[in-house]
Amino acid sequence: MKLAHKKPKKNSPVPAVYLHIPFCRHICPFCSFAVRRDRVELHEKYILGMFDEITRRAAWLEEKKQINRELKLSGPKLLESIYFGGGTPSSLKIPEIELLLSQVRNCFPCSDQLEISFEMNPEDVNPDYLSGLAEIGVNRLSLGGQSFQTSTLKKLGRFHSGLELRQALRAIADSAIDNWNLDLMFGIPEQSILMFRTDVEEALSYYPSHISLYGLEIHEKTPFGQNEQIRKWDSEHQQQFEEMYLWATERLEKAGLIQYEVSNFSIKTKEGRNNLLVWSGNEYLGFGVGAHSYLSQTRWGNKCSLNTYLKDLEHNSWPVDFEEHLQVNEQAAESLMLALRQPKGVNIEQWQKRFCLQWKKQQLDLVNELCAAGRAFWKGQYLCLTAKGMLLADRITVELMP
Length: 402
Ligand code: SF4
Fold this sequence. Notes:
Blueprint: E1 16-21, E2 23-24, E3 36-37, H1 40-67, E4 79-86, H2 94-107, E5 110-120, H3 127-135, E6 140-146, H4 150-155, H5 162-173, E7 180-186, H6 193-204, E8 210-215, H7 228-236, H8 238-254, E9 258-261, E10 264-266, H9 273-279, E11 284-287, E12 292-295, E13 298-302, H10 306-314, E14 320-325, H11 328-340, E15 346-347, H12 348-354, H13 361-372, E16 376-379, E17 382-385, H14 387-390, H15 393-400
Helix pairs in contact: 1-2, 1-10, 6-8, 11-15
Bound molecules: iron/sulfur cluster.
Iron/sulfur cluster binds near residues 24, 31, 88 and 144.
């Protein structure tokens, strides 16, 4: 009797892959991401660099798994999400995107339900580009709209106008991709509550399946961070920003967009897959400049300089800027932070047991204060934050760590 040869089952080491495209037509004065001014002649070198990084990382993982088994891979068996972020992924041409996509697909066995999400700027949206994306398998878009008001967009240093955003949204509505997100911003200098409300209402008139709502953050090393007037505006309007956020969370929920994280709202089943996987503590790999990865309780981040990134790859070394193995207390803080940023909250008893931690009087008093102030509440064993509490989620996490 012949025994059938058993083929080894193919696994993906991670369920989520992030691809960072750093190019932007110009750099917005508030931006703190790993970005650089776009130069088309750099695209090919960069894409080939990323291609190399993907290939080598996949081979390295395979080797680790087979030789010393020190890498204890967990999580699902197939890749469920590929996310193109930036920067501006839509600065690339369709064949360039396809090359990266096909290499990720070659290296990591994919689920049939794979979500391929792609960030776009409104000025790059046109019917041909959208059908090109759909043809290569992109099935979710994320549009960096921010506002419908040209004056607000100018203040932000954005390249598109309100008119271009409307045209982009109409083109997306007519395209084959029906799962899409619109980014909206609040807390922009000189943006009134009424202006922001008008933005939210106009966004809803396009029936988005997802909205990401971001408060403008002022980072020290950016032109906004160096601008005293802007910093003053920011510190004097915190109350107004809270009002904008609380109004929007209610308005979006009324329109059927359920909040599933501090900044993210979606209709049922259209939550961003990458978001869900990462926030549930799953492992992920990031490729490209400044991209972060998390595997076997180790986090690493790539170098942000494009030249150094490419040089390291050319010399056959990893373009890694930092690598840290998360200690138990860091894992506990991260798990608490991720859970508190989601409406389902955190099962405190399980969390304490898992990380061998015990809350003291100080943490219990803080929770009571948060509940009394309408920022938190108990749902059985779960501690949840209200919309008012979510605004302070990161600070609350720090204070709740024993
Ligand atoms: S377009 Fe987006 S990523 Fe690029 S500079 Fe502006 S904010 Fe940053």
